[in-house]
Design a protein that fits this description.
Blueprint (H helix, E strand, L loop, with lengths): L3 H12 L19 E16 L5 E20 L4 E6 L2 E6 L6 E6 L2 E12 L2 E11 L17 E14 L2 E14 L6 E13 L2 E12 L13 H4 L2 E12 L4 E14 L1 E2 L2 E10 L1
Antiparallel strand pairs: 1-2, 1-14, 1-15, 2-3, 2-4, 3-6, 4-5, 6-7, 7-8, 8-9, 9-10, 10-11, 11-12, 12-13, 13-15
């Protein structure tokens, strides 16, 4: 039988990994009638976790996650775009000496993005998201999601420029996520810098922060999943983009969990296709 300790950290791992940074559409949005689509496959593996004090500890087994992530953005007007960020996952956890598997849809993110300001290569926008549970069996572990609806509000800023004779970009996000139920609210932030290192080649460096606010009512709802969104995580990433044409790009990269509390260590990688039409 799986121990409560392993169950809690399995859930902390799963929920701490629900939303990798989406494809770099960022603050710019889409022109009316235009579509940006990306399809990303990613993988993650760890045999360690960060405890509540931020110390790395062995978890007594390996957790693995494989994810398929389609992202779609459609331009409604000069200022407005609709977004859909969808996730399907395959999870494995052998902590405690017994292999457990689960698969299916995880949390889905449906959103609306509005550009507020654009001038001299800089763009300011807002992005609202509705978090929709995937409908998975919550009694099965590893858990795929929190089984709670939620909402997220984001402020986005992007800037494109020329640096040392080549194109460069900066993309920033600052957001607040709140679930309609027990999981803790979170501050979420992203910073991505991009630079054209050669013709058709671009390197993207990223940092992503999830900061749980510890404002859930843990005494009123004694559920081991409470710990799941009450985590803190700093993820660092490196991605290479190869531009196939004006409309299509291939991307591949890796990431590591550099620091955290109540979430997994380790790291992983991803490959994907970006396409606009």
């Amino acid at each position: 039988m799986q121990s409560p300790h392993h169950a809690i950290w399995s859930m902390a791992l799963c929920f701490g990994l629900l939303a990798p940074a989406p494809a770099l559409a960022g603050a710019w949005g889409q022109a009316p009638g235009e579509v940006f689509f990306s399809l990303q496959g990613s993988w993650y593996s760890t045999d360690s976790f960060f405890d509540s004090e931020g110390s790395r500890r062995d978890r007594g087994g390996r957790f693995r996650k494989y994810e398929l992530n389609p992202y779609l953005e459609y331009g409604l007007s000069e200022a407005d775009s609709l977004t859909a960020n969808l996730f399907s996952q395959w999870l494995e956890d052998d902590a405690g000496g017994r292999l457990r598997r689960n698969q299916g849809p995880a949390e889905q993110e449906l959103g609306w993005k509005r550009r507020l300001f654009q001038h001299n290569g800089g763009v300011l926008a807002i992005h609202g998201l509705m978090i929709v549970p995937g409908g998975s069996d919550t009694a099965k572990t590893p858990r795929l999601d929190t089984d709670r609806y939620g909402a997220e509000a984001n402020l986005l800023y992007g800037r494109s420029t020329t640096l040392w004779g080549k194109k460069a970009l900066l993309d920033l996000r600052l957001g607040y996520r709140d679930y309609f139920g027990y999981p803790a609210s979170q501050i979420r932030a992203n910073l991505t810098g991009g630079y054209d290192i050669a013709e058709r080649w671009q390197v993207l460096l990223g940092a992503e922060l999830h900061h749980g606010l510890r404002n859930d009512d843990s005494e009123a709802a004694l559920d081991s999943a409470l710990i799941a969104t009450d985590y803190r995580l700093l993820k660092l990433s490196l991605t290479l983009r190869y531009q196939l044409s004006d409309h299509a790009s291939l991307v591949a990269g890796g990431y590591t969990h550099a620091w955290g509390e109540n979430t997994g260590g380790g790291g992983g990688g991803n490959v994907g296709l970006w396409y606009s039409f």
